[in-house]
């Protein structure tokens, strides 16, 4: 997994609450058996009309947002299905960080496994960022080493993130390798743990 | 101080506990399906890893498969590839697969309980957010992403932080003619669909104790729709009666032993929940969602609300939901006409659901111009429904009778609602485009969906003239 230390990029303000994973990536694209190439389908029903033409009004179809790398959005982002295709699509489109007042559980967790930093900020701060990001091309630096975001024009704000997850992202660690080091403990546990059937 | 049921199950599964890190917890049963697993197997191959416990892993196909003819080639080539990939992966890694023509095939959350694989006190995970269904047995069950699927395949464990706990106390009895689906929709409607983010719920109270296992599964199934990680119901006599004699459940002396153990799986009297909610059941009506998330729901005798009736910060959401759903505020729910009816899914695709729908349907015909589908949750549900004559009731009335699968719950297979279609659906999500681009979903119980199919619009099924037993 790609490590995340610090990143600067254009902010795309997607002003909508409760964006669910069906909206992030509709189901017809979940049949692919690979992990890459989902960026073209991100927010598909909003980005494209029924004839597969780009919808010119949609934020990510406009300059400079095609090159945005920080997604700013509202409450409960990523609710619904557990599909990891959602962070895959966000990542593949080019986003490295998502800022919102709240995230759905599974999605939040999935982000860290894919090198995306979800940043939870109080609603007032998110509102303030929406105002700033109404200027096209507004950029933010996301610094995970020191846990702050800044716009280089005087705005700076700390954010909180759990140390364990932070460390995983900073170092691009693979959780499976880490767990496998406890193989002996798992084997011991299995000796005493009762399950009433095997398949 | 006492422990909650959640804490008891958790403690039984902690393998490694470390400061400032999530615990490593053991997973007793890992369910996999064709959509969220291929990339996990790819990851294993890349790293040269094996599946640690194929004997704790079960695969089936449900999401993208056709519910009509399943002989290859599929109409949908990409779905076919996905099915082939699962076959190959199960073969390569030694995992049991209930394949398309198996009598045990079905929606993953339907087949595990019906075989007795879901047992109290276990941990169960699946790359699917409705895994919470299994919580009805006092089982800690939750959905995971594909990276975690790979983690479980490789290690039979997960790294997890403990969630906060919330008691949902349902007080009073459910009124007659009101179902488990209405109960959970009413709860989500009252508190909103992200209310329980970060929590594991325990559903308690008289109304829950009165429910059958199938109804309890309907309640737990929708835990994710209120934002929760999982939902639990403590096992009791209803649970044990349901499990007794099921294929994977111990028999004889061993049964007595497990029963003793399972009876311990209760929250202690003095257990402390992080939060508790009291919910009065006596006023619940049959529920119909009108918006684009499951929390936008009202009783059948209500009207579609308007933006002015809600708090300021909700207005935008309500307006966009009304626009998508093409509904005017003030419209009576009973005046909403549908052209598609879907009965099925892991929420309401079990035999009791089909029985309740068939009771309404018997002796009637589907209204003209309506496309109505019944998709049993598993092959075993299908077979039982055929033996009981339910299939015939549905087909005589003009419903399509299908093979088991997820079908129009998410429209990944050819069962897709068309743009503009308005669907009465027994599934669990009414998000924009969920059942098909630009289609409009209204979530209801099976009997409400059946009545809508007959009348062509929503009606209060409590007043339905049942014709069963009148010589029909
Ligand atoms: S029936 Fe619907 S909710 Fe249930 S597993 Fe299938 S797609 Fe998911």
UniProtKB/TrEMBL annotation, chain A:
Domain of life of the native organism: Bacteria
Any GO molecular function: 3-isopropylmalate dehydratase activity
CDD domains the record matches: IPMI_Swivel
Keywords, ordered alphabetically: Amino-acid biosynthesis, Branched-chain amino acid biosynthesis, Leucine biosynthesis, Lyase
InterPro entries xrefs: 3-IsopropMal_deHydase_ssu, Aconitase/3IPM_dehydase_swvl, AconitaseA/IPMdHydase_ssu_swvl, IPMI_Swivel, LeuD
Domain Aconitase A/isopropylmalate dehydratase small subunit swivel: 1-123
Reaction(s) the record says it catalyses: (2R,3S)-3-isopropylmalate = (2S)-2-isopropylmalate
One Pfam family in the UniProt entry: Aconitase_C
EC numbers: 4.2.1.33
Biological pathway: Amino-acid biosynthesis; L-leucine biosynthesis; L-leucine from 3-methyl-2-oxobutanoate: step 2/4
Primary role: Catalyzes the isomerization between 2-isopropylmalate and 3-isopropylmalate, via the formation of 2-isopropylmaleate.
Cross-referenced PANTHER family: 3-ISOPROPYLMALATE DEHYDRATASE SMALL SUBUNIT, 3-ISOPROPYLMALATE DEHYDRATASE SMALL SUBUNIT 2-RELATED-RELATED
Family recorded in the similarity comment: Belongs to the LeuD family. LeuD type 1 subfamily.
Assembly, per entry: Heterodimer of LeuC and LeuD.
The protein, known as: 3-isopropylmalate dehydratase small subunit
Source organism per UniProt: Planomicrobium stackebrandtii
Automatic annotation (TrEMBL), chain B:
CC cofactor note: Binds 1 [4Fe-4S] cluster per subunit.
Classification via InterPro entries: 3-IsopropMal_deHydase_lsu, Acnase/IPM_dHydase_lsu_aba_1/3, Acoase/IPM_deHydtase_lsu_aba, Aconitase_4Fe-4S_BS, Aconitase_4Fe-4S_dom, IPM_dehydratase_rel_enz, IPMI_cat
EC top class named in words: lyase
HAMAP family: LeuC_type1
GO molecular function, one term: 3-isopropylmalate dehydratase activity
Reactions it catalyzes: (2R,3S)-3-isopropylmalate = (2S)-2-isopropylmalate; citrate = D-threo-isocitrate
Function: Catalyzes the isomerization between 2-isopropylmalate and 3-isopropylmalate, via the formation of 2-isopropylmaleate.
Gene3D superfamilies per the UniProt record, alphabetical: Aconitase, domain 3
Alphabetically ordered keywords of this record: 4Fe-4S, Amino-acid biosynthesis, Branched-chain amino acid biosynthesis, Iron, Iron-sulfur, Leucine biosynthesis, Lyase, Metal-binding
Top-level division of the source organism's lineage: Bacteria
Region named Disordered: 421-442
Pathway assigned to this chain's UniProt record: Amino-acid biosynthesis; L-leucine biosynthesis; L-leucine from 3-methyl-2-oxobutanoate: step 2/4
E.C. number(s) listed in UniProt: 4.2.1.33
Protein name per the record: 3-isopropylmalate dehydratase large subunit
Cofactors required: [4Fe-4S] cluster
Domain Aconitase/3-isopropylmalate dehydratase large subunit alpha/beta/alpha: 7-456
Basic and acidic residues bias spans: 431-441
Oligomeric form and interacting partners: Heterodimer of LeuC and LeuD.
Binding site for [4Fe-4S] cluster: 346, 406, 409
Family to which the UniProt record says this protein belongs: Belongs to the aconitase/IPM isomerase family. LeuC type 1 subfamily.
Pfam families noted in UniProt: Aconitase
């Amino acid at each position: 997994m790609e490590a995340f230390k610090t990143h600067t990029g254009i902010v795309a303000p997607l002003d909508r609450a409760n964006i669910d994973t069906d909206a992030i990536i509709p189901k017809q694209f979940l049949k692919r058996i690979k992990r890459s190439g989902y960026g073209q389908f991100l927010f598909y029903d909003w980005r494209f009309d029924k004839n597969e033409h780009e919808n010119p009004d949609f934020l990510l179809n406009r300059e400079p947002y095609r090159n945005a790398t920080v997604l700013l959005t509202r409450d409960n982002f990523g609710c619904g299905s557990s599909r990891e295709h959602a962070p895959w699509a966000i990542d593949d489109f080019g986003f490295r960080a998502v800022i919102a007042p709240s995230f759905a559980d599974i999605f939040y967790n999935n982000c860290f496994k894919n090198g995306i930093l979800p940043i939870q900020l109080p609603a007032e701060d998110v509102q303030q960022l929406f105002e700033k990001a109404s200027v096209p091309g507004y950029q933010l630096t996301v610094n995970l080493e020191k846990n702050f975001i800044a716009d280089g024009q005087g705005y700076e704000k700390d954010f909180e993130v759990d140390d364990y997850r932070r460390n995983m992202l900073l170092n691009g660690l693979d959780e499976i390798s880490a767990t496998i080091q406890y193989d002996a403990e798992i084997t011991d546990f299995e000796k005493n743990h009762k399950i009433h059937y095997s398949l | 101080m006492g422990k909650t049921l959640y804490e008891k199950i958790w403690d039984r599964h902690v393998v490694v506990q470390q400061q400032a890190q999530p615990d490593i917890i053991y997973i007793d049963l890992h369910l996999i399906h064709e959509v969220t697993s291929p990339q996990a197997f790819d990851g294993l191959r890349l790293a040269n890893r094996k599946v640690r416990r194929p004997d704790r892993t079960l695969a089936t196909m449900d999401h993208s498969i056709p519910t009509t003819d399943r002989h290859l080639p599929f109409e949908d080539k990409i779905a076919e590839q996905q099915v082939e990939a699962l076959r190959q992966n199960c073969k390569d890694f030694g995992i049991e697969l209930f394949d398309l023509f198996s009598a045990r095939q079905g929606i993953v959350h339907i087949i595990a309980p019906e075989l007795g694989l879901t047992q109290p006190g276990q941990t169960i995970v699946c790359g699917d957010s409705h895994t919470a269904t299994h919580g009805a047995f006092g089982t800690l069950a939750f959905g995971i992403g594909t990276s975690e699927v790979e983690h479980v395949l490789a290690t039979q464990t997960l790294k997890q932080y403990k969630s906060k706990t919330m008691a949902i106390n349902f007080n009073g009895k459910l009124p007659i003619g009101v179902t488990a689906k209405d109960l959970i929709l009413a709860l989500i409607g009252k508190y909103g669909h992200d209310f329980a983010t970060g929590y594991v719920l325990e559903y308690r109270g008289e109304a829950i104790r009165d429910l059958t296992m199938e109804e309890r599964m309907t309640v737990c199934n929708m835990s994710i729709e209120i934002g929760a990680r999982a939902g639990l119901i403590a096992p009791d006599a209803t649970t044990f009666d349901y499990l007794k004699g099921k294929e994977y459940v111990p028999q004889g002396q061993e049964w007595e032993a497990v029963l003793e153990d399972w009876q311990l799986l209760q929250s202690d009297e003095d257990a402390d929940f992080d939060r508790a909610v009291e919910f009065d059941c006596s006023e619940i009506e049959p529920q119909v969602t009108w918006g684009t998330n499951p929390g936008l729901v009202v009783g059948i005798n209500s009207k579609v609300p308007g933006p002015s009736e809600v708090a300021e910060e909700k207005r935008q959401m309500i307006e966009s939901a009304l626009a998508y759903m093409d509904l005017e505020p003030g419209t009576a729910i009973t005046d909403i006409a549908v052209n598609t009816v879907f009965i099925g899914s892991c929420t309401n695709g079990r035999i009791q659901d089909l029985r309740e729908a068939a009771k309404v349907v018997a002796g009637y015909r589907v209204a003209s111009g309506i496309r109505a589908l019944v998709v049993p949750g598993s092959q075993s549900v299908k077979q039982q429904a055929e033996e009981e004559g339910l299939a015939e009731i549905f087909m005589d009335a003009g419903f399509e009778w299908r093979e088991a699968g997820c079908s129009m719950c998410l429209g990944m297979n050819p069962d897709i609602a068309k743009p503009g279609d308005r669907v009465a659906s027994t599934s669990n999500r009414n998000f924009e485009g969920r059942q098909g681009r630009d289609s409009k979903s209204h979530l209801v119980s099976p009997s409400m969906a059946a009545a809508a199919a007959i009348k062509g619009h929503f009606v209060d099924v409590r007043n339905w003239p049942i014709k069963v037993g009148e010589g029909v």
